[in-house]
Amino acid sequence: MRHVFELGKLMVISPHLDDAVFSCGEVLACKRDAIVMTLFSGLPPPSLPLTPWDVAAGFADSEEAMQLRRQEDQRALELLHASPVWLDFLDSQYGDPPGAVGLAEAIAGQIEAHDPATVMLPAGLFHSDHELAHRACLLARSRHPGRHWLLYEDMLYRRIPKLLQERLTGLSRFGVDATPVAFNTHGQAERKRHAVQCYASQLLALASPGRPGHSDIYAPEGYWRLGADAPAG
User: Fold this and answer.
1) Is 138 within 8 Å of 101 (Cβ atoms)?
2) Residue 93: C-alpha distances to residues 59, 166, 172, 203 (Å)
3) How many CA atoms lie within 13 A of 226 on its CB side?
4) Residue 229 pLDDT more than 80?
5) Contact 139, 233 (CB under 8 A)
6) pTM exceeds 0.85 for this model
7) Where are the chain's structural domains?
8) What is the pLDDT of residue 1?
9) Architecture field, domain 10-227
């Protein structure tokens, strides 16, 4: 592992309202004024039946769940001196997913508006929203080749055997080199821990029976710098 270039202005792309802090919280703690763009943070219709995940998270209403999750996200990012950007695409538990092209257009538009020097995208492991976010980010990356793009390891899902290696191998087949990088985040673990605790509803759901718990969130974060051109689809 080696230390990466200076990040400059940072944008982290998060599938859900917690993924960026869970997966990149220590780096965010080191970077004042970072931007966290959450893709699937839209409010579901009030008539939607309560989902099993929202039940496990202690909610009584799905629309209220997303409103409260935004509040959790706001508090966590304030602790890390980062700013949220919430897109209105629905979490897959609430309805059909958007197309990758339309999602990529929205991502590219936010990149143009905020002009980050470095963009971090999820490896896109296991969860359908994470996989879609990953594909859309690669499409958006093809429109912004002059920026630094880093892959971050999706906390929890990265522990599923072979998934991360399969993702990296797949990128290599498309001619995209992924080089491991590390950051000096010494002393930031406690700040991340405080930010993570803001997501009380999600920690409750993760700790419910049959779910993976949340110990991996506090393990060392993993990053990979992407080189060469991203695949176009």
Assistant:
1) no
2) 14, 25, 31, 18
3) 33
4) no
5) yes
6) yes
7) 10-227
8) 39
9) 3-Layer(aba) Sandwich (3.40)
